[in-house]
Amino acid sequence: MNASAPRAPAKPTGLDCRLAVLGSDVRLTPHRREVFDVLASSTDHPTAYDILDRVKSRSPHISLATVYNCLEHLTTAGLIKQVQLERGQSRYCANLHEHVHFHCETCGKVSDAHPAADFDPAKFWNLPKGTKVTRMDIAIHGTCEACTAKH
Amino acid sequence: MNASAPRAPAKPTGLDCRLAVLGSDVRLTPHRREVFDVLASSTDHPTAYDILDRVKSRSPHISLATVYNCLEHLTTAGLIKQVQLERGQSRYCANLHEHVHFHCETCGKVSDAHPAADFDPAKFWNLPKGTKVTRMDIAIHGTCEACTAKH
DNA sequence: TTTAGAATTAGAATGATTCTAATTGCATTA
DNA sequence: TAATGCAATTAGAATCATTCTAATTCTAAA
Questions:
Q1: Which nucleotides of strand C lie within 7 A of protein CB?
Q2: Same structural domain for residues B91 and B73?
Q3: Gyration radius from chain B CA atoms
Q4: Nearest CA in chain A to B139
Q5: Least confident of A147-151, B18-22, B61-65, B92-96
Q6: Is the residue at B1 inside a domain?
Q7: C27 C1': nearest CA residue
Q8: What are the strands, taking DSSP E only, across chain A?
């Protein structure tokens, strides 16, 4: 064991600002902020590669490993959500409002849909007594408005 | 181009029986039947490796490639469903009744939960007019009864 | 300033799945 | 019954997304 007590986490100063959200926090380093900003200004649920491409326009030397690292930290902190709609690449989303994902099987686009105000999902399924629910992932697959019209 | 017309698909004879379900069909070869039977008698949503293990007790020489191949054919035919609860291995399920998956984040077990009789999922989300829904994937994550009790 | 820990990086390693090419099996046609 | 041709099966290679590793750089507190 090391005799010295663990140092307290660094406090926000200059660029090293933090955001406390949902009881967790992250050091918002420049790269993490860029990744977050890219995601916050996207509505298309980009993959890690998509995010790499977009962040590169501001930070040409950022690596894929860093993008994955940033995404993990932001996800752990609850600032963004990882979305697994199908096997293969994960997608990411900065919309923290309760919502479901609509996936168009024709054009591949993913969009958010928001529930009606009175929707209480848990009560519709007969879960055994004592079950605790922490989150729900709802994905709706089909054909979007545009693709339906084109047909 | 080959001058001969394509041969009509083989008809059911002996082992080469088919099942027509949801407008599609599969040749139910011995391996496909074994994979299907394993799945139909499992409630734990096994992965491809799990299925390989179980089928091996009857067909010791079956390969992982064949298991994947069978799973793909059975999925395409609508006899089973692929379930993607998190990144990594896909799981498979032969329960074709409308249901949602409950995933215990403590013990990792996956179980089915069935909706209340009057549940009409589509009407709860404000999807753009013209959107066509073909299927919904609903995953509920949390702590199962047993793990909650142990705590 | 020094220093310890965290962030970043490139590239290797991993894990799950898909692809490829060769072989085998089965059912129709000769 | 034998020949034929497609589908099924196989082992192993290839691929893809992600995670890991080890080295380097950065940041902020001492």
A1: 4-11, 15-20, 26-29
A2: yes
A3: 19
A4: A137
A5: B18-22
A6: no
A7: B10
A8: 18-21, 24-27, 81-83, 91-93, 100-104, 110-113, 132-143
Would B103 be classed as within a structural domain?
A: yes
The pLDDT tens digits of the residues spanning A104-118 come to 988 889 999 988 877
Give strand letter and number of the nucleotide nearest A48 (CA to C1'): D17
What domain range is B69 assigned to?
A: 20-96
For B71, the enclosing helix (H) or strand (E) is: helix B64-76
Assess if residue A41 is contained within a domain.
yes
Return the number of CB contacts < 8 Å for A and B: 118
The integer distance in angstroms from the CA atom of B31 to the C1' atom of D1 is: 29
Interface check for A98 against chain B (CB to CB < 8 A): the answer is no
